[in-house]
């Protein structure tokens, strides 16, 4: 295996509060689904569906929403960063 190419000066990965929020948005579904003891039960039922199943289906929707939020946060930061760089170039 070859070593990764060196990162050019000024091209370091940037950790910002927005990216931390985006990361938390992507991490939350893992916690919600992998913490099985929190939802391993039958009650309360929702239209006859045990809690175990409708909780997991709810996380599908929540995960999609959180992914969209994370995507928009990162895209907004990238756009602001590229606008800042193009302003510097002028």
UniProtKB/TrEMBL annotation:
Taxonomic lineage: Bacteria, Bacillati, Actinomycetota, Actinomycetes, Kitasatosporales
Keywords on record: Membrane, Transmembrane, Transmembrane helix
Name of the protein described by the UniProt record: DUF3311 domain-containing protein
InterPro entries: DUF3311
Pfam families xrefs: DUF3311 (PF11755)
Signal peptide per UniProt: none
Transmembrane spans: 20-40, 52-74
Organism annotation: Streptomyces iconiensis
């Amino acid at each position: 295996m070859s070593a990764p190419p060196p990162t050019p000066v000024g091209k370091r990965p940037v950790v910002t509060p927005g990216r931390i929020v985006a990361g938390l948005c992507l991490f939350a579904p893992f916690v919600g689904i992998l913490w099985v003891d929190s939802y391993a039960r039958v009650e309360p039922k929702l239209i006859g569906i045990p809690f175990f199943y409708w909780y997991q289906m709810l996380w599908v929707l929540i995960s999609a929403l959180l992914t969209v939020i994370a995507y928009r946060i990162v895209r907004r930061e990238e756009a602001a960063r590229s606008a800042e760089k193009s302003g510097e170039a002028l």
